[in-house]
Design goal:
The protein starts with a strand and ends with a helix. About 40% of the residues lie in helices and about 25% in strands. By secondary structure, it is of the alpha+beta class. The structure holds flavin-adenine dinucleotide. The site of flavin-adenine dinucleotide has 20 residues, from strand 1, strand 7 and helix 7.
């Protein structure tokens, strides 16, 4: 049921790998517009931020991709790549790239410490179908205590499907998973105010506990960490996998540009990768964490401040453009 929002940088990497074009057309949907709404203080009209590919002069703000299909196409690319050998057991290699996700066992074996902060929230994901066309519009509601995203998608109903990512406190996530479909759909209707039409479940639901984490080191002699093994961010901006793919691209670049006498596991070489990724990953962790804390505040004063902030950013064209450009290429 998972979908990923991929940015232009990730799509370019997948195109280079000839993986992007192998995805069936209904497994990748372009996002033309995005509407971000906040909570509405008593007596106020709803405020919203609008982003558009047209305003940004880009082909699309993001692409929503079927996670299982992307896995399958990557697995098939690996099978047919003559320079890749799949091994069943650990082998000696000059460079080991640890890409085992947030609980990476090899990272622990390397003795790398990780700073972790659990959000106490879970991300509920599901596939939905609407009675109204999505028109390439991604919708997001930032409120206290939940953050809800509807990502336009073409599977299984072309033009009418959505990927749902709903970040809620953990007990609420359990309740949402336990609800009968009709009750869940009613909760969704309430949370979205029917703005995306009447939404029906189109498959199973699942939830993932959310955390912020960062490895204290991402490189050493003969090893590097990439993706969630190196850093985990809140999915409110849909940037986790994008950061991981940007790690891969940076590492490939560092290796390709190395001096001829430097081996693949050279500590100094791998430190270049660590340096290249330090600021972008720190910045994304900082932004997503700050947004989460900003919207976690329940008091009316905070609601009012958020409401004004949204209106303010929406009117400030250059700031909005800069924010979008940042998200388009992590
Ligand atoms: C609800 C939710 C929604 C999200 N939405 C988005 C989004 O829209 N866009 C986005 O960019 N990101 C999103 N993310 C974040 C994204 O899912 C992660 O950042 C991304 O999956 C990390 O990729 P990874 O390959 O580093 O780790 P993982 O996806 O965790 O993959 C690691 C893999 O390694 C395997 N593995 C582990 N140990 C070994 C071993 N020893 N040998 C072999 N294999 C091993 C695991 O089984 C797993 O398959 C979302 C996250 C959540 C929770």
């Amino acid at each position: 049921m998972r979908t990923y929002a991929l940015n232009a940088g990730s799509v370019a990497l997948l195109q280079d790998l000839r993986v992007w074009d192998a995805l069936p057309p209904d497994a990748r949907t372009a996002v033309w517009d995005m509407r971000v709404q906040g909570d509405v203080p008593a007596g106020r009209r709803p405020a919203a931020l609008h982003f558009s590919a047209y305003e940004q002069s880009v082909q699309a703000l993001a692409w929503i991709v079927d996670a299982a299909e992307l896995d399958a196409v990557l697995a098939s690319a690996v099978r047919f790549a003559p320079h890749i050998t799949v091994v069943a057991e650990a082998v000696q290699a000059p460079l080991t790239v640890v890409a085992e996700g947030k609980d990476a066992a090899s990272r622990a074996a390397l003795g790398v410490k990780v700073d972790t902060q659990a959000y106490g929230h879970s991300g509920v994901a599901a596939r939905l179908r609407s009675d109204q066309p999505h028109a390439g519009l991604a919708r997001q509601w930032f409120r206290s205590p939940d953050i809800l995203a509807l990502l336009p998608f073409d599977r299984p109903s072309p033009g009418h499907s959505y990927g749902l990512v709903w970040s809620v406190p953990q007990d609420r996530a359990q309740a949402l998973l336990a609800m009968a479909p009709a009750e869940f759909e009613q909760a969704l209707a309430q949370a979205t105010g029917g703005e995306a039409g009447s939404l029906a479940l189109d498959g199973p639901r699942a939830a993932w506990p959310l955390r912020l984490s960062r490895a204290q080191a991402v490189s050493g002699p003969g090893w590097v960490l990439v993706g969630d093994a190196a850093h985990v961010v809140h999915p409110l901006a849909g940037q986790g996998l994008n950061l991981g793919l940007a790690d891969v691209q940076a590492l490939a670049g560092v290796i390709a540009q190395r001096e001829p006498w430097r081996g693949l596991g050279d500590e100094k070489l791998l430190r270049r990768y660590a340096r290249r990724r330090h600021l972008p990953t720190l910045a994304m962790a900082g932004v997503t964490d700050a947004l989460w804390h900003l919207f976690a505040q329940e008091s009316p004063l905070w609601r009012e401040a958020r409401h004004r902030g949204l209106q303010w950013v929406d009117r400030l064209g250059p700031l909005k453009k800069a924010l979008t450009a940042r998200a388009l290429n992590s």
